[in-house]
Amino acid sequence: MSRQKISEFSAKTALYSAFNLDFQGLVITQDTPVSEITNHFGDTNLVVKVDQGIKKRGKLGLVKINLKPSEIPETIAAWAKQGWNSFLVEPVYEHDSTAERYLSLIRVRSGWQINYSRSGGVDIESNWDTITTTLPTKLEAFLNTTLIPRLDSHHISFLEMNPIVERGDKIIPLDMAVEVDSAATDLPILPDRLLTESENEVAILDEHTPASLKFRLINPDGRIWMLLSGGGASLVLADEVADLGLGGELANYGEYSGAPSDDDVYSYTKIILKQMLSPLTFNLGPHALIIAGGVANFTDVKKTFSGIIRALNEQANELVKAKVKVFVRRGGPNEVAGLSAMHSFLASSNLLGSVYGHDISLTRVVSDVKEYLS
Amino acid sequence: MIKIQEIIDRDNKILVLGNHEGIIQSVLDFDYLSGKKEGSVVGIVTGRSGFAKYFWGMKETLIPTLVSISPLTFNLVPNTNLWLLNLLSGRRTLTSTQDFFTQLPYAAGAALFAENVPEFHEQSLITQLGSKLIVGPASVGLLVPSILKLGPIGGITPDQINDSHLSESGSTSILSASGGMTNELINIAISAGHRLSFALSFGGDRFPVLSPCEAFLLAEEDPATKTVLYYGELGGDDEYELVQLKEEGKFTKKVIAHIAGTVSSLFPESPQFGHAKAKADNQKTTALAKREALAKAGFQVSNSFSEFISLVSKLK
Q: What is the pLDDT of residues A36-80, one digit of tens each?
């Protein structure tokens, strides 16, 4: 449901045939033996690149040209020390740097925004004034009849090729960066970063339900934890924490939406509480858990809250010991029943911060939290 | 594209694709509480021919269920707007919507509920059906008080419909990128004593069929609307188009706007937030940059959501 990066290997595998080219690239890791590289390419000059969706690799020194297979392990070992773990090897394509062009296609509302420059290459940023939307006739025809239909079929939203080299009838993209539409693409999506254990647990949970469950750890030492519902309301509540000067205390961002079952919400809450109470990062002093959302259109408050209460109840003693207070605001179907169940649970468990319904503004809980923590 | 006034001036009927009892019942409850003589839902395409049981007030009523969309099924009286409420999944939204408008080309518009509609499909919908009033994808719908409730917008229980005074008309229009925040804004406006002219969620996708700009033009052309409450998010260029509308004098009414997403500055790189469009790819598409651009163009823009609430409460 959003634009995500894919590897250059996946991009070229999917698109090179549209250019009438064979893609010969090989993905290697630090453990790949030199013999495998030699078997694939012979003892020839090669290009090696970090292939993890990084921009400006050339400038960052994450591309090396004209290496023999035997020289590759040393380069890769150095990159691996910086934390990189996936690399693309390709044959060197000899060309003059004056033949390097820039071409990018971005999916926009009315079709495609296409940018082209005859001065492509690593210095494109400083040559940005050479960018034009007017293309050579043959190139334009190729895009319209061949390349764009291919992009549509893979649900690609963004393609940047820098450089491409034109030689005779051929156009050769030496470098490709691609973003796909994750709602429908058939290409493998790169993780945008390494997930923490709790983030990974939520991601797995999310895959197994039609509802949407998101969790991102910002600062495990933070004292403000959030269990939010709705894409918009979660953003507004997280903003408010930052706007009140509490950004440094914000432990996580996340949301559940799309009418999750009470079991989904139970498991989601459990993961967040486990992370919150983790002895590795837990600080002394008061903590706040914000359980909040807008006035739901169709998500049942009573049902989702019963899942949350079940998870809170299992950890009630630990939460009290950790000086956690829970601040709640929610409206929507079955609001009264859901809020009153939550209120009586929190009051009887000594966890009550505040409990509000739709008649109190969305962001009031954040002010309450500020007062409690100060 | 149909104007809000033309929705008010004519009768409105809805064909539902897909089954979601709570949402369908809420449309009937809205009709009933608005004092209509009959419900606006004329059929539900479920793949099975028969009837589905719903409530009309305290009495049971039967609504025809259909195997497929068929133009022959509808003997609409003249002067009626026909609407599609499409509750199918993201993958099926494009083809089913195309099918509806091919079979019933005179229909006025649609609400598309599903998330995960591919961008490529959204482009096709815009090119082929851009002249219809289509809110979404990922939209909770379109609401014209006492006239039309096309989707879960405004809530799905009779209490929510009553509390939000959805059978009374006013002069405040609500336009929102988020389904939940649409309802939240309705709640804020009503609590401050205002009543709605109309409300809609264009959805948080990158290419909503009805663009935010087009939604603003609906409000501009609606004689009842005096003020627009706008909720937008980081990501995308839509707010710059609103600035252009304002500068060209095409939009003249009062606006109170909130753009969410300043929290992204706590991260080294803008994360992808809940909605598909909600990611700042560059400085220009951050919440702060968009707030500044809107304010400079003369829109009233809040610096925090609490301020937004307070601006609405001061609204005359």
A: 999 999 989 999 999 999 888 888 999 999 999 999 999 999 999
- Token readout for A304 is 């989702």
Q: Which domains does chain A have, with CATH numbers?
A: 23-91 (3.30.1490.20), 97-181 (3.30.470.20), 197-373 (3.40.50.261)
List pLDDT tens digits, range A231-276: 899 999 999 999 899 999 999 999 998 889 999 999 999 999 999 9
Residue in chain A nearest B158 by alpha carbon: A333
Q: What's the rounded Cα separation, in Å, for the pair A159 and A143?
A: 12
Q: Do B267 and A243 touch (CB under 8 A)?
A: no
Q: What's the token pair of residue A4?
A: 């995500």
The HSE-up count of residue B301 (CA atoms within 13 Å, CB side) is 21
Structure token pair of residue A96: 């003059």
Chain B segment 25-64 residues within 8 A of A by beta carbon are none
In chain A, residues with a C-beta closer than 8 Å to the C-beta of B111 are none
Q: Are strands B50-56 and B59-66 parallel, antiparallel or unpaired?
A: antiparallel
User: Is it the case that residue B72 has pLDDT exceeding 70?
Assistant: no
Which CATH superfamily is B4-314 part of?
Succinyl-CoA synthetase domains (3.40.50.261)
On chain A, the residues whose CB falls within 8 A of the CB of B156 are 297-298, 333
B118 and A CB contact within 8 Å: yes
| Cis upstream peptide for A188 (omega within 30°) | no
**Which phi and psi angles does A48 have, rounded to 5°?**
-125, 135
Read off the pTM: 0.93
Backbone phi and psi for residue A288, each to the nearest 5 degrees, phi listed first: -125, 135
Question: ipTM beyond 0.85?
Answer: yes
A238 touches chain B (CB under 8 A): yes
**How crowded is residue A111: how many other Cβ atoms within 10 Å of its Cβ?**
12
What are A285-343's pLDDT values in tens digits? 899 999 999 988 778 999 999 999 999 999 999 999 999 999 999 998 899 999 999 99
